[in-house]
Structure formats: structure tokens, C-alpha cells
Amino acid sequence: MYSNFNGIEIIGLASSVPKDQVSNNFFEHLLNEKEMRMFEKTVGIKERRWASVNVTASDLGYHAANDLILKLGISKSDIGALIFLSQTSDYIIPFTSNILQHRLNLSNSMMCLDINAGCAGFIQGLYTAFSMVNSLPDGKVVLLIVAETLSKIISKNDKSTSMLFGDGASAILVGKSKRAADTCFNFFSDGSKYDSIIIPDGGFRNGVTQQSFDVQKDEKNNTKTPLNLYMNGQGVFDFTLREVAVGINSLISETGTSINEIDFFILHQSNNYIINQIAAQLEAPKQKMLVNIQSFGNTSGVSIPLVISDYHNVVRNANKIILSGYGSGLNWGNCLINLSRTNIFPINSI
Amino acid sequence: MTKDAFIKLLQDELEYENELYGNTLIKELEEWDSMSAMILIGVVAQNFGVTLKANDIEAITTIDSILEIIGSDKFN
Question: How do strand A79-85 and strand A111-115 relate by DSSP bridges?
């Protein structure tokens, strides 16, 4: 699916991460020295941020949003819709966006919407925000909050997931402007592989039972329960190498541009090795791939805006940036965007 | 690339302590894991323009079997 927006832009973007840094030393019980070296060499993660027990994704999102609203000095009454995108919401019912609407002291005259989306979530959420603002009166904006605390759903004794994920949040304000450059999206989905990244129990297909708390051990001695995140690493790796570059090339072709004209590529920060492989498939120089996986790990849908915040001095001078998200669902999607008019603020540790 | 150069390259990238040969059953080695699969896929993609898929990785037995999947015409 291809879509093009004219006259809509990201007005501002701010990001927050927990102050607690968790280095790879924390996982010495899972990997030997050589395995750790290979992990750092390939996956590329050296440390990640994990929220403390009492801090939720919406807490991180609240700080990012509050920071953004204050710094931009926009009127809260101009926010016509609030989207909260996360897989680690406060409750199953109700929407966390409602909780944030009240906590941020926003108007009652607005639409609140939660989206449960994974590593492609930023692209999906951004597309939703662009679609919404399109139908709002001039001057109204949409607040998108992407926030995750995946540290709370992984087994700390499963080396296939525990070392990969970090926590964080970004807040993004989307509005109309006659001076905005075109923004283009494309999306893909393969529901046949829905179980490649999954928490098996706790929904309404497999409700929580006594067995949901049983610790299971795999052939590599990783242990987890059906309430933890499960990932078919090999299958997901296979998918990203087959599909992501094809999807990006498709967007580049549909928008009539070329790889050489793209200033930067910001790919979901899942794995440094994957990012390098995709760069090679695209025949794009590695210098154009913006990466911060070494410091924050895989923060799911937050990873792309977290890179944008981290490279705020660089991306504001660029005209053409490709954003690419891919993950659970399986979903993958891309966006060609100009951030030169966007107010981007550096990452805030809280 | 020669077959021997490929095996040497793989040995260097994987950093295996075991010496690799054409008839080495690579997945039987204790050092083989998902990171090894990832590195193998990267080495093959970068040097031969061939993307090994999950079913290719499943089908691999010996180093020679990797060479067959890549295609014997790619080696001199």
C-alpha cells in the first residue's frame, strides 16, 4: 500500500529514556566471553536503558510529551487527537491515551486512540497521525506518543531476547503547513507469520492459566514462561533480509527519487548486522545509516524517533530521509520524509 | 574466490577454534548458534550476492553443502 501526504509535517519531536543503564556485563551469566564478543560485534548492543519497577511506558511517554509541549510552547487546546502507540500499555482496559490526556491536562474535546504495534509501529503511528490531522481544522495538531518498556515482558534468562531490548519513549507533534514537503509511506504485512514474535498467553486466545507461569527450558537452556516475549530469531532475520530492502526500493521508485538522493536512512534498530546487510542490498554507503543501537538496544517502535533525537543536529540539515520499520505481525513499512523544518530535541534521561 | 579462500574467510569471521574443512559438519559444532547463522548469511551475501534463506540454513550439513547452495560456478 502506497500513500502520499501533502501539506502535513512533523512539527516537533522529543524523546525520553530511563536513566538506568544496563551494560552487557549484566548478562555474563548467559554468555561466555567469546559469545559476548560476537554479540557485540554482530548485534552491536553495548548497553540499554531499563525502566525501574514502578515506571511504565506511559510515564516515559508523559515526560517526552510534556517536554515537547513546553519547549514548543504550543497551546494544549490545539491538540485535537492523542495517539498512544505501545505494546506495554498501563492496562488492557482502558486506553492509556485517555490516562495521558488527563495527566497532560489536555482538552476533553479530543480523540484518544491506542495502537498496539511493534517494531514497525513508528511508521504506522506516523501514518495514522498524518491521516488524522488531514481531517482536523487548520491549526489543530495530533500528538503521537510512542513508548515501550519491553524490559518488563522479557525473560531475563532468555538470551534470545533479554539482551536485545531497551526502554524509551518519543513524543511527536504533527500538524498542517503549506510549506511542508511531501511525505510518502508504503506498508506491507504477512499475517501468516504472526507467531514469529509473540507473547503466547495472556490474551483471549490463550488466557492466563496456572500453566502460564510454568518456566520452560529450550535446547539452549534459555528459560521463559508463555507470558514472556518469544521470538523466532532466525525466521525474523530471514524476513528482514528478504523484504526490507525490497520495500525501501519500492518506495524510492514510487516517489521518483533514487538511492543517491537520500541523505540518510534510519532503520529500526534491531541488529547492527541486519542494518549493514540492508545497506549493502540498497548499495547505500554505511555512513548514511544512522545508528544508536549500541547505547539503547532495540526499543521497538521507539527506535526510529530515538535515532532522530540522537542525531538532531544532522537530520535537520537533510532534505530526504528514509525511515524503515519492521517487526511483529509481521509488519513492515517505510516513509520518505523531510525533517528540515522539524524542531527536534535531544534525548532526555529521566 | 577459491573454495579454500571461502573456508578461510568463514573461519576468520566466525572465530571458531575448530579448523573448518569442506567435510566439516558445521552445525554439529558446539560453537554453532544463531549468531553463526547470521554471520554466515552476511559473508555469503557480501561476497556472492546470494541471500541464504531460513530453509537454506536448515538444509546445511557440511561446508561443502554451503558451497553447493551458493553455486559451484561462483568458485574458481
Answer: parallel
d(CA A332, CA A348): 28
- H or E element, residue A147: strand A141-149
Comparing CA positions, the residue from A326, A328, A324, A323 lying closest to residue A342 is: A323
Please give, rounded to a whole number of angstroms, the shortest distance from the CA of B25 to a CA of chain A: 19
DSSP code of A6? S
Whether A65 contacts A173, CB under 8 Å: no
Domain count, chain A: 1
Q: Which residues of chain B have pLDDT under 50?
A: none
Interface TM-score (ipTM) > 0.90: no
With beta carbons under 8 A apart, name residues in chain B contacting A237.
34, 37-38, 41, 54
- Regarding beta strands A216-217 and A223-224, do their DSSP bridges make them parallel or antiparallel, or are they unpaired? antiparallel
Chain B residues with CB-CB distance to A281 below 8 A = 45, 51
For the stretch A183-234, pLDDT in tens is 999 999 999 999 999 999 999 999 999 999 999 988 778 889 999 999 888 8
Return d(Cα A157, Cα B68) in angstroms, integer: 37
List the one residue out of A197, A336, A178, A326 whose CA is nearest residue A255: A336
Preceding peptide of B52 cis, ω within 30°:
no
3 state SS of A229: coil
For residue A44, give the CATH number of its domain: 3.40.47.10
**A104 band by pLDDT with thresholds 50, 70 and 90:** very high
- Could you tell me the three cell numbers for B75? 568458485
State the residue range of the domain holding A61. 1-350
Residue among A160, A271, A277 with most chain B CBs within 10 A, to mutate: A277
Upstream peptide bond of A94 is cis (omega within 30 degrees of 0): yes
Of B2, B12, B21, B20, nearest to B72 by C-alpha is B2
Nearest Cβ partner for A38 among B15, B42, B45: B15
List % helix, strand, coil for chain A (3-state, nearest 5): 35, 25, 40
